[in-house]
Amino acid sequence: MQRWCLWDKVKLDEKTGFISGFTGKMVYLQNYDGQYLQVSSKYKQISVDKLSLIERNNNWICQEVAL
Q1: How many CA atoms lie within 13 A of 22 on its CB side?
Q2: Phi, psi for residue 14 in degrees, rounded to 5
Q3: What string of pLDDT tens digits covers the 67 residues of the chain?
Q4: Nearest to 10 by CA among 35, 37, 40
Q5: In 24-63, which positions are buried (b, 16+ CB within 10 angstroms) versus exposed (e)?
Q6: Residue 52 in contact with residue 11, Cβ under 8 Å?
Q7: What is the pTM for the complete model shown?
């Protein structure tokens, strides 16, 4: 059984996002810009069965920016 943590970096199909909240066995995902990733236009919740872990973020979101 996978244990998910807040702000884990995950992959949903070809999209990358961060877990921003939980509702039972469902999660909310956001991208770097704070936009919610959705699998349907009606619901924001996504089943954890559709996710694969990329990396644990320990409650931090980092993005490299070229100067």
Answers
A1: 9
A2: -105, 5
A3: 578 889 999 999 999 999 999 998 899 999 989 999 998 888 899 999 999 999 998 777 777 778 8
A4: 37
A5: eeebbbbeeeeeebeeeeeebbbebeebeeeeebeeeeee
A6: yes
A7: 0.82
